[in-house]
Amino acid sequence: MNEQETSLRELRHIKKMMEQSSRFISLSGLSGIVAGLCALAGAWFATRSISAYAHGGQLNYDTLISQLVFIAACVLACAFVFAFIFTYLRAKKTGVSIWGNTTYRMLFNLAVPLVAGGFFVLRILQMDHVFLIAPTCLLFYGLALVNVSKYTLGEIKYLGYCEIILGVINLWVPGYGLAFWAAGFGILHIIYGIIMWWKYERV
Amino acid sequence: MNNPIENLNKTFDSRIRLGIMSALIVNEEVNFNTLKELINVTDGNLASHLKALEEMQYIKVKKGFIGRKTNTNYTITKAGEKAFKIHIDALGKMIKDMQ
User: Fold this and answer.
1) In this structure, CATH architecture of domain B10-98
2) Domain count within chain A
3) What number is the average pLDDT over the span B13-22?
4) With contacts defined as CB-CB under 8 Å, which chain A residues touch B27?
5) Contact B88/A21, CB-based, under 8 Å?
6) Which residues pair with A121 in a beta bridge?
7) Is B2's pLDDT higher than 70?
């Protein structure tokens, strides 16, 4: 009985060491929630710009596009800053260092599909296939999350699968890009953030 | 049936050595400071356990420099991988057999 307990403890220790040395585990659920809120705020601003354009106001097409790109950049910056702050606070609380091999590996594996997707979206914008932008963002982001799941808490791959499914559906429902974008980057992030926070950070 | 305790490797008796092997088996290479931070031990203590594993030829040492600072990396050998897997299997069997 005692030997059994020792074996179990040893195996748990091995598992913990494997995970801590290879995965970045400080990603906070709160950053998911805030990223989702940023995305919803962005979607609201975007809707306002689009309806101003649709009602034939002062906005011409090029200004609309540059406004939308500006909004998207703000959302990305806000989400990134908040993700960093919450993750930093969590790492400090659990006493894990935030800059290590695991962080570098996670960021790199996240960046590869995102940068590729970024170029793709840029080209879509240049060619004026605006209806493809939202599904492309969702698809590449979903792939990035699935790719990164080996290097951080594994649950993130389910978020990735959901983003991919939304992206695929959106390909056949053109004209609702913004709604899909808000669902994928807003609502899914918030749900994911709440689940992760509930599971790992609730005291 | 043979006794799983016989398959437990005496070399892996210490927590520090378990930590080292666990980190090396899932990473291509790990440097000294990362191991130190992960396992939370003093330099001397970690170094002596690393030495012991190196003498068993379970791990390999690669010394290098980053600028003027020494940077020592460790990798697991084929023999080390095999020995550690047998050890983990034995631990698993012990739990199953006694249930």
Assistant:
1) Orthogonal Bundle (1.10)
2) 1
3) 92
4) 21-22, 101
5) no
6) none
7) no
